[in-house]
Design goal:
It is built from 10 helices and 19 strands. It is globular and about 60 Å long.
């Protein structure tokens, strides 16, 4: 069909055009789509790759839709995706529904964004999850004794910001000296066990497991990711994990979407779902770990799933061990480091996330990490050794505020 632009096109909509959106834009272009990039920043790097650019906040889904209608015929839109979470998911869902594309129903998006709604729905569909309460404003009185030890987290939020473990009444009283109003919190019973990430993709209402990573976190009270590694020690649980993913798919009425699940595995191999989100995930999992470990083109196949092109399911088989090692520091200033040599064997990525001169702090949220190293090898142990050796070779120096 010849659209309002005067040419024949099948359009793909990129909600967001930051650097993290470039893999999706690239795959859409490879598949032959004309890409419309949406971003309020006219200098967003992904916009340079797009055929049409719309400068608008990714949260303004109705305004975006009106601008799209003024530019092209809506029936020419074949797919829409975003790397971002939260409001971006609402926008993806809204645009998809208006275009007759089946993804996540718009009226179900808040069931993911609001953790209290997510937990309620997870329980209703029979997926195991820790006991919880929702409180309006934190106070000592709001958290019952039977939930201790517990994890507190904002009802909305990301990057582990505001997440904290409270093991007993004394820690609770120290953490919350006085009532805090104006924000809702999820208070969740703390479960002992190992945490894993299940990375999956939904196509035509069927969940496919792509891979599992073991997640290593900083010690309590905070939960900052410092490592992901695959193959997981819990690869033998692939089938029960797949069943949980399918329940989420059906319970939340998802037709097509990426899906990340955070799970706790206890010493009896029982699974408990901490969180499920319809996104690609951060932590360099979809960008680097998955393609290096499995060879699966997560972004390309998600574009296929969202647009109706031929879809190839993952084999969920790890070919290489991959370790994602985050670098954390202490309070001070990032003074210096030694850049790694280019092309070093087994080093997939070595990147500082903060510039020289930046303020550093002990890790309280994922935003406090200062760098990342990603390595691959034939075995887990070798990938881990390469990551630790690469970290030492960076010679990172942090000076405190009193240093000369």
């Amino acid at each position: 069909m010849r659209g309002k632009t005067g040419t024949e096109h099948n359009f793909f909509i990129s909600i967001g055009a930051g650097s993290n959106q470039i893999p999706l834009i690239h795959e859409a272009k490879v598949s032959g789509f004309s890409v419309i990039g949406i971003d309020r920043d006219p200098a967003a790097p992904g916009l340079m790759l797009c055929d049409i650019r719309i400068h608008e906040s990714i949260e303004e889904y109705y305004s975006i839709y009106q601008k799209l209608k003024a530019l092209i015929d809506i029936e020419d839109i074949k797919g829409v995706l975003s790397r971002s979470f939260g409001p971006a998911i609402k926008t993806v869902s809204f645009i998809a529904e208006q275009c007759g594309i089946s993804m996540i129903p718009f009226d179900r998006t808040d069931d993911f964004i609001d953790k209290s709604k997510m937990k309620m729905n997870i329980q209703e569909i029979g997926v195991p999850t820790p006991d919880y309460r929702v409180v309006d404003g934190l106070s000592v009185q709001a958290i019952e004794h039977d939930l201790l030890p517990c994890v507190i987290k904002p009802v909305t939020g990301h990057a582990k910001r505001g997440v904290q473990l409270l093991r007993n009444r004394s820690e609770l009283e120290q953490c919350i000296p006085s009532p805090q109003a104006g924000e809702r919190f999820l208070v969740e019973r703390f479960l002992e066990g190992d945490e894993i990430i299940a990375i999956g993709i939904i196509h035509r209402k069927r969940y496919h497991l792509i891979g599992i990573t073991d997640k290593i976190k900083t010690p309590p009270p905070y939960f900052v990711d410092i490592m992901h590694i695959t193959p997981s020690r819990y690869d033998h649980l692939k089938e029960p994990i797949r069943v949980l993913g399918q329940r989420i798919c059906e319970g939340f009425e998802i037709s097509a979407s990426p899906l990340i699940m955070e799970l706790i595995v206890d010493h009896h191999d029982n699974l408990s779902l901490i969180e499920a989100v319809p996104e690609f995930g951060g932590e360099f999992l979809s960008d680097t770990l998955i393609p290096a470990a499995t060879g699966y083109n997560f972004f390309g196949e998600m574009v296929n799933a969202a647009t109706g092109l031929p879809f190839t399911p993952p084999k969920a088989k790890v070919r290489r061990a991959v370790a994602v090692r985050y670098i954390t520091g202490e309070r001070g200033t990032l003074a210096s480091y030694t850049p790694p040599p280019a092309g070093e064997k087994g080093i997939l990525l070595s990147k500082m996330l903060k510039p020289l001169g930046a303020q550093t702090d002990r890790p309280v949220s994922n935003h406090d990490r200062i760098g990342v190293i990603i390595t691959s090898a034939r075995s887990r142990a070798r990938a881990l050794r390469r990551a630790e050796r690469a970290l030492m070779n960076l010679n990172i120096r942090i000076i405190d505020g009193n240093s000369a």
